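Exam prep: given the inputs below (a chain plus fe (ii) ion), describe the expected output before reading on.
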Amino acid sequence: MDAQALGVPDFGATEPFKLFPSETIEIINSELEKHAHELQALLSSIVGIPIEPHPMAFERAHINVQEQKYSDSELVEVMKQNDDATGEEQPVFGWHTDSQPLVCITMLSDVPEDAVGGETHIQKADGEVLKLQFPAAGYSYLLQGSVIPHAAMPALNYNRVTMITSFVPTNPLFCEKTDLDLAIKYSPADALTDEFVKYRCDYMSKRLKLLKRCSTSDGVEFCENLLDEIMADLKHTKDSLSRVKDTLTK
Ligand SMILES: [Fe+2]
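Solution:
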């Protein structure tokens, strides 16, 4: 290929080369092994039911980067104005519920001692708003983000980098309403919808198996309720795909 004609750096690919010494690889692998199970067990114990990483790779993990909103001198001005008015900052990510049932949000960036902003606001059923602030990098919180409305407030004087890992309940008796409304903005449509359909089929198959298993033992009412939910699952799956189609044809 002609790099000059393409206007790209004159580089193709390398042979494999040793980037890490074997000690490093051992450490990474042992951490991976240790934490994959440990993490799932720990988070399940906190939620109170077995949970597992979201089966959809596109929904499983992402990192949010919000750059510091103001320089130090701008911040002094803004704080003065906020004192004069009642002004509170607008969320960087407004009030919403998530597509993924449960999320573990981990702070990756250092939080300065004089941190202003960067809290997550969550709303209780009675309307009260709780403000969660990460004390430092490495702290996490768990949220049933599909149910609890929440909003991310802007970090005014530091960069806020958070890692979000998604989980689903292992037991298919729990409702699960993953959709593609957000993921379609960041992911290739064909691969995303393909993965979504397969995932939803697996989920609904598990629910049908549960129905088959429990139909005699749990009675007609249980069957009716579960069938209603499965019909709602089918509709949810179709509606999610239709909205993706509408987004793409706009
Ligand atoms: Fe969220």
